[in-house]
Amino acid sequence: QQKMTSTLLLISCLVLLIPLFSAEECLICDYFVLVGEPTAVSCPIVTFPGLHSNYSLTWYKNGSATPVTTERRARIHQREGLLWFIPATLDDSGLYECDVRSRNHSNKKTINLTVFKNDKSLCFNGKMKFEQKLMSTKTGKIICPDLELFKDEDNNQPEVHWYKECKPGFLEDKRLLLAEGENAVLINNVTVQDRGNYTCRMVYTYMGRQYNISRTISLEVKERPLQVRPEFIYPKNNTIQAELGSHVVMECNVSSGINGLIPFWQVNDKDVDSFDSTYREQFYEEVTSHGLAVSGTKFNISQVKQKDYAHKFFCHFIYGSQEFTAYIKLEPPAQNIQGYLIGGGVSLIFLVFFTLSIYKIFKVDIVLWYRDSCHPFLGKKVSDEKIYDAYVLYPKNRESCLYSSDIFALKILPEVLERQCGYNLFIFGRDDLPGEGKLSEDKLH
Ligand SMILES: *[C@@H]1O[C@H](CO)[C@@H](O)[C@H](O)[C@H]1NC(C)=O
Ligand SMILES: *[C@@H]1O[C@H](CO)[C@@H](O)[C@H](O)[C@H]1NC(C)=O
Ligand SMILES: *[C@@H]1O[C@H](CO)[C@@H](O)[C@H](O)[C@H]1NC(C)=O
Ligand SMILES: *[C@@H]1O[C@H](CO)[C@@H](O)[C@H](O)[C@H]1NC(C)=O
Ligand SMILES: *[C@@H]1O[C@H](CO)[C@@H](O)[C@H](O)[C@H]1NC(C)=O
Ligand SMILES: *[C@@H]1O[C@H](CO)[C@@H](O)[C@H](O)[C@H]1NC(C)=O
Ligand SMILES: *[C@@H]1O[C@H](CO)[C@@H](O)[C@H](O)[C@H]1NC(C)=O
Ligand SMILES: *[C@@H]1O[C@H](CO)[C@@H](O)[C@H](O)[C@H]1NC(C)=O
Ligand SMILES: *[C@@H]1O[C@H](CO)[C@@H](O)[C@H](O)[C@H]1NC(C)=O
Ligand SMILES: *[C@@H]1O[C@H](CO)[C@@H](O)[C@H](O)[C@H]1NC(C)=O
């Protein structure tokens, strides 16, 4: 797997190195070169499909009817279908045409060459950089592109020198390795610090003269999420309360930085489907947006049976020759004693409160009812251990009042309160014995 990802990475790097345009897309394709450096421009039409191998290709300077010379010693010449500038000068910036003819096919294409100077105090021009991307933590490669055409007379690739931010010496880092045959630098354990401008330069000898050829690569490093050690999301060695006959989904899932983990269920040291043939595991895997993978397996217990309570259900997965385990235990639901206690307590309090309220409101009636029903046994003595409920005092025998208070106290009050309501009244002048009244009057004073 590791190998494959690095291969993929390599391919994606190479794809990025293909010229900055695609021939079909550009009406006038752009080419760049640094002043003083040789370059060879290819005709973008040649990449068109369906073109016969037997064709002729001729380069023209913009607007000129005379083809560019094929004289190899000329600074600008055409050779093998390419337009060579050895080297380019600032005046060379401009349009060039390539004319492609086969037996019954003819096509023309214009290209736009721009000759740049280096940016001030830099060894490159920021407008003509190749872009490459690498993933952090992986092994990566920076490739010096488009050097194939520049071989020595004996067809050897000249030595390539590397600079980072125009300074040599960065290759002393042990993580970096020169891959000579490939014009590339290998980087082990890429870090974000590796991003930057890399310039590769070689000396090209043509017709006995030496020229510099350089390329600058802008390297981006994408942060890769750290490989996360896999761990159970669920279960967490927990119990589930499930009633006999109920339906339970047994799910186990693992989050990790790697794909392809396969968790599986076991119970009683057997796979779950040999424990019960209706327990059919279903595996799934999904990758979250953070690049983390979730692998899971689940099965249905469509009806919980007694035997399901007897064992723990273990979920396993294997990672790096190590086995990881977590379990679920099914339990019949416990009697909810606490619930009963709380419920009972509340109703008890309510009952007491209710009783008290009833007593408060109907106290008199209750006492009377009690008295009525118990009167025969209790005689005059009542439950609250008082002989009388009320003590009636009234002004005695005033002539002017026509004995009205006497009548009220001695006739109406007893009639209503004693006969109808059942109170025991102490009425002064009726229930007082000689001497007693005096005593109470002494006490009152
Ligand atoms: C290529 O085309 C030219 C004329 O355009 C013809 O003379 C020549 O024989 C052709 N060669 C091949 C290999 O078809
Ligand atoms: C290219 O040639 C056309 C016509 O021959 C001319 O009008 C145009 O200015 C030229 N462009 C350049 C950049 O030389
Ligand atoms: C040239 O064109 C004719 C018809 O336009 C076609 O039959 C023939 O195959 C073409 N030949 C080539 C070499 O493209
Ligand atoms: C050629 O390229 C240069 C630099 O990119 C640009 O300024 C110029 O306008 C281009 N010319 C044409 C005719 O596209
Ligand atoms: C790259 O990292 C791995 C593990 O982190 C380490 O074993 C290895 O030595 C490192 N390689 C270099 C060249 O630093
Ligand atoms: C790369 O070069 C550009 C100028 O072209 C500069 O702005 C940038 O800071 C450089 N990158 C680094 C990482 O130094
Ligand atoms: C190549 O570039 C280096 C560094 O800029 C410079 O010292 C050297 O003279 C150049 N060589 C040629 C042939 O231009
Ligand atoms: C993992 O399993 C638990 C328990 O069934 C579930 O609630 C959760 O959604 C699952 N997580 C993922 C990412 O599938
Ligand atoms: C579990 O049962 C549900 C319906 O209750 C069904 O949708 C699901 O596909 C079943 N899963 C498995 C693994 O049998
Ligand atoms: C869960 O139980 C398994 C096996 O009994 C044990 O290996 C594991 O460490 C436990 N995990 C936790 C989080 O307690």
Key descriptive features of the protein:
single chain; 445 residues; alpha+beta; Immunoglobulin-like; 4 domains; four-stranded mixed sheet; 5 helices; 35% strand; elongated; disordered C terminus; binds 2-acetamido-2-deoxy-beta-D-glucopyranose; immunoglobulin domain; disulfide bond; transmembrane helix; hydrolase
Walk me through what this model shows.
The protein is an alpha+beta fold and 445 residues long. The protein folds into four domains: 2-116, Sandwich (Immunoglobulin-like); 130-222, Immunoglobulins (Immunoglobulin-like), CATH 2.60.40.10; 231-331, Immunoglobulins (Immunoglobulin-like, Sandwich), CATH 2.60.40; 351-444, no CATH class. The protein is 20% helix and 35% strand. It has helices spanning 2-17, 272-275, 337-378, 404-420, 436-444; strands at 28-34, 39-42, 56-61, 76-79, 82-85, 94-102, 105-116, 130-135, 140-143, 160-164, 176-179, 184-187, 196-206, 209-222, 231-234, 238-241, 248-256, 264-267, 270-271, 282-287, 293-301, 312-319, 322-331, 390-392, 425-427. Strands 16-23-22-18-19 form a five-stranded mixed beta sheet. It is elongated. The termini are far apart. The model is unreliable at 1-21 and 435-445 (pLDDT under 50). One 2-acetamido-2-deoxy-beta-D-glucopyranose (NAG) binds at residues 236-237, 325-327. One 2-acetamido-2-deoxy-beta-D-glucopyranose is lined by residues 174-175, 188-189.
